[in-house]
Amino acid sequence: MKQLVDKYTDKMIKGGLAEAPLVCGLDDEMTWNRQAPEVPILEAVMQGMNINSLICAEPAEPYQSILVYLTERYPEVITPGDCETRTFLHDLPVGHEFSAKVIGSHLLYRKSVVIKADGKVKIVTFGTVSPEQAFVTFSSVCFAGFVLFFADFLADFKNGTVSETQRRAFDRAVSHLDEPRTDCPELLCGPFHREAEAYEAIIEAGRHTVEYGLVDSYFGNISYRLGETIYISQTGSSLDELAGCIDPCPLDGSSCAGVTASSELVAHNEIFLRTDNRAILHGHPKFAVILSMDCDRKECPNKKRCHIKCSEERTIGDIPIVPGEVGTGTTGLCHTLPPAVKGRRGAIVWGHGLFTVGREDFNLAFQHLLDIENMCREEYFKRVK
Amino acid sequence: MSSQKNGWTGKVLYIDLSASMIKVVHPEDEVYRKFIGGKGLAGYFLRPHVTLPWDHTEMPLLIFTGPLVGTAAPTSGRSTVMSRSPLTGTIADTSVGGRLGFELKRAGWDGIIITGKSEFPCGIEINDDKVKIGDASKQWGRDTSSFFEEFYDGKCSVSVIGPAAENGVAFSSLIVDRHHAAGRMGIGLCFAAKHLKYLIVNGSGKVAVHDTEKLKAAREEIVRLTNASPILMGQHGFSCFGTGSIYDLMDSRRMMPTDNFTKTHFERAAELNANAYKEKYSPGKHGCMGCHIRCKKIARSKMAGVSMPEFETMSHFTALVGNTDMDLVMQANKLCNRYGMDTISAAATLACYREVSGRRDIAGDVLDLLEQIATASSELGRELGRGSVSYCKLKKNKSASMSVKGLELPAYDPRGAYGMSLAYALSTRGGCHLRAYPVSHEILRKPVATDRFSFSGKARIIKIAEDQNAVIDSLTACKFIFFAAGLEEYAKAYTAATGVASSAQDLLKVGERIYYNERIMNALNGFSAKDDDLPRRFFEESGSSGNSIEIRPIDRHAFLEARARYYRIRGLDKNGLPDPQKVEELGLT
Ligand code: SF4
Ligand SMILES: [Zn+2]
Questions:
Q1: Which of B2, B77, B217, B260 fits B290 for a cystine, CB–CB 3.0-4.6 Å?
Q2: What is the mean pLDDT of residues A185-194?
């Protein structure tokens, strides 16, 4: 347990999610990463629940400023419209007292609670099999808050309804953003001919994608086609820890060993069949996601169902935006994404993320991911000027 | 009790076969809240009688649905059949799909309590509130297929036992709506003990729901999550290939039980995977009522109309018994269903026979042996029909029965997943993977992956999962969907259906009560820590390492420590027995 607790403490800090997280794992006894005044309260929360891990932390900047603002604007519950929230979190309940009672009452129903007290925000999340769940949820809350905050600002800006506090929060959040990176890493050069090379290239590209902030650890997926086999990251794997988490899936489906492969295997498969790319990279870069949700059509019959229904041909630069949900349902992105990628660098899925492709290896796919996100970021700040 | 209920019907049918007497029971609201339905409610009604011998006239046979059955909640077509097991002596609950729960609920019943013993072979026919006990003398001895031919039109629900149960096979099953089985624990024999051959249910009512809109919203969330699940809806998942889709995976993870668990890798696995079946039999999709996953498969080209084997059957009738013929698996599966026998216990008992007898090649005799067991037509058949523990005792070779508490183990070798070793050992019905289902995180990475070669944290994980699955079997939903959705979403569905405010954590508390109640019942029948254990083989012999995976014997000390932690977490004493304070706290006195 201690090992897992330390691992996720470390990931919280390295991932810029929190500076001093409290992480707990529980088998028959509780294991904390450190002692703190909040611990007794959190232990009381855990006692009232059937769980095995918990994380509590003040999110680092810019998430702190963002969530302080959002909890004022939405004092009961924050409801971001991105795909991670829609699919996994549903919404983000808000509490206003750091007490076992308030935290517990929300965690009974949801995977997370955002507690705003004494002008600061703390996020509390939990898991039932591993601290990893608590970590993933924490990271998703930060991501969803970020996306909602910037999307709200853009919409309000266009309507001329940005308030004083909102503007201040915005400036503060922006001041905490890292400079966009423009340098690309030098990744292994393809085309690859041996399995071992493909594995190595996937692991390397995955790690960089997380390092560059183009996806939060846990989400995203990546694949490489070698002959008639797709090597793809497993479902729920972390792109920065892919060793041992890559499934070989024959294109003709002759083995089901890929039953643990990423939920987007079908989409990857289709892209490989329709184009002559060998590498696919999928991340959740924030500004691409935010811009994909920015639409000026006031009277659209599909409003509120944009993520599955949008039939407009929308683009940012040369990059199309398509609707589609995770996976293979009738409204799944496996139907919309592959045709959109054909003949392009990549495509954005509405409120979800960006898929890019490369012909030989991950160098181009990575570069596209980075370039498109930077283009979206630039475009975003143009739209709010 | 108000007659106007949502989710539940508020009515339980009580049938005394000795007296041919029928009455209606209205459980208190509190009973519903404390035990929900399905196996929770069945366990509640079983407990007062649980120390009776399994074939005692007063031993009840319980069939219960849950509050979600017959509503728009996904995978809510299932139900529980429960009694005391002739095979293990433990409680015996089995979850079954098909239309049974759906029809029962629409007929206005949350469940049926069957007690007594009919003088003559009989059948129960339910048409809404009209209940008839029919004479089944002419049907006794009939196999299930011919029974379905005559009585199953696909619009009602038909459950029937086959000759195996009538001939006393301890692992005989109940076959429901042709393609579904209440397979394990010898539940078929519990029917036979009451001279009960069949149950036909026809319901025409509607299940009242508290808040249709909210139920729809909960449904949408759940369906969205299943669509995002590669294991359920992906191109290699259950919906496309059935449960057999994990056959390749189990072998590549080196945990496919081979040659009666002496090895964990089967050389010929690649030729016998789900895709090979798909090519040969072009199976079509079929599912339980109200399910969009539809994991059941039915052959269409060769052997058209026959149920395709589930993963456990595919694995045990190949690797475990040393067979490489796909057709033979199909035939064995068909035979087991026709005679009404659990495929897992049947195959595992044959594997045990193979080891004890020292016969390397029994493939050619598999069908014949199954026939002898089901019809009890030979000494050997009768010996094997009592299960592997009894057979091994007879042959003075205890180590060859790969079972826990007398229930033969399914197709996941615990040396390749330590949570599974705890799950098997601690399961209240014996060697079963479905109580805690750690395959979910140890192999399928849901909700996140855990280290399968470590006991760290597993005691609590197993406890939480048992509670969760107890809830699922009480609602009653399908455990498979929990590879994708969680109680968070199902709590919403439960509240929307019943109007009872409830969170995921509230439901887990109920699950804890339901599961603890099972520990109490087993303890009353003398089960304790000595029974919460695995066959020695797993602690003494290695599995088949390879693929850069090492399969070592399980460290007995680490196992026992984890089990002790589990007892503490579950609130049991050192001997695995209930603690009076916990009993009181859970309202189970
Ligand atoms: S997933 Fe399969 S077993 Fe479960 S309810 Fe659906 S059809 Fe039945
Ligand atoms: Zn994604």
A1: B77
A2: 95
Going by pLDDT thresholds of 50, 70 and 90, the confidence category of residue A81 is: confident
pLDDT for residue B106 is more than 50: yes
Closest chain A residue to B563, measured at CA: A28
Which helix (H) or strand (E) segment holds residue A47: the answer is helix A39-47
Interface-testing mutation among B225, B233, B235, with chain A (most A C-beta atoms within 10 A): B235
Q: Are residues A206 and A164 in the same domain?
A: no
Picking from B41, B37, B158, the residue whose alpha carbon sits closest to that of residue B98 is: B158
What pLDDT does A244 receive? 83
The phi and psi torsions of B557 (rounded to 5 degrees) equal -65, -45
Provide the ipTM: 0.88
- Residue B81 DSSP SS3: strand
Cis omega (within 30 of 0) for bond into B447: yes
CA distance B453 to chain A (A): 14
Both tokens of A191, joined, read: 């085309």
Distance of alpha carbon A26 from alpha carbon B458, whole angstroms: 10
Which tokens sit at B47?
């407990």
Question: pLDDT tens across B186-213, in order?
Answer: 999 999 999 999 999 999 999 999 999 9
Do residue A235 and residue A164 come from a single domain? no
The CATH number of the domain where A76 resides is what?
Answer: 3.40.225.10
Question: Is B460–A28 a contact, with Cβ atoms under 8 angstroms apart?
Answer: yes
Alpha-carbon span A289 to A312, nearest angstrom: 17
Right CATH for B12-202 from 3.60.9.10, 3.90.1640.10, 3.40.50.1220, 3.90.1150.10 = 3.60.9.10
Number of domains within chain A: 2
Instruction: Give the pLDDT of residue B1.
Output: 42
